[in-house]
């Protein structure tokens, strides 16, 4: 279904380069179910995968995305509207293919209202996913 364009796509190599450069602050959001997140995720990524109730609360502006980020993080997160936000779910290929009512579309839309630069990581196959996790872990463990 066609809908207003939200977020832009970023590929794995660009994300790694962005993290390695250290020139910009990046907030990583993992929107996969908690079980998948718990099995394997990018170090420092915040898991935000909401129930239907939370999705509805987001849609109705009964909860702010910044509050949800703070609540979901394992530690206090310094939120700066100028930082880049990269959301991933390991399967979405591009923003245009998302249905207007799916959780990821709602999440991206709410993030765009609070942050200047929001990106969806292009879906990676298993080998690319493993490579991305290793590269990000190497960079983030040095930071």
UniProtKB/TrEMBL annotation:
Where do transmembrane segments lie in this chain? none
Q: Which Pfam families match?
A: Rhodanese
Q: Kindly give the InterPro entries that the UniProt entry links to this protein.
A: MKP (IPR008343), Rhodanese-like_dom (IPR001763), Rhodanese-like_dom_sf (IPR036873)
- Spell out the molecular function terms from Gene Ontology: MAP kinase tyrosine/serine/threonine phosphatase activity
Q: Name the SMART domains on file.
A: RHOD (SM00450)
The Rhodanese domain covers which part of the protein?
Answer: 22-134
This chain's protein is named Dual specificity phosphatase 16
């Amino acid at each position: 279904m066609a809908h207003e364009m939200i977020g832009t796509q970023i590929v794995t190599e660009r994300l790694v380069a962005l993290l390695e450069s250290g020139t910009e602050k990046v907030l990583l959001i993992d929107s996969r179910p908690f079980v998948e997140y718990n099995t394997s995720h990018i170090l420092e990524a915040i898991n935000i995968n909401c129930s239907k109730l939370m999705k509805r609360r987001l849609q109705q502006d009964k909860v702010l995305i910044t509050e949800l980020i703070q609540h979901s993080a394992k530690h206090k997160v310094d939120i700066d509207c100028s930082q880049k936000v990269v959301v991933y779910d390991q399967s979405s290929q591009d923003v245009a293919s998302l249905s207007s009512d799916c959780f990821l579309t709602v999440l991206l839309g709410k993030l765009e209202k609070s942050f200047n630069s929001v990106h969806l990581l292009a879906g990676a196959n298993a080998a690319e996913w493993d490579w991305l996790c290793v590269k990000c872990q190497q960079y983030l463990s040095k930071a």
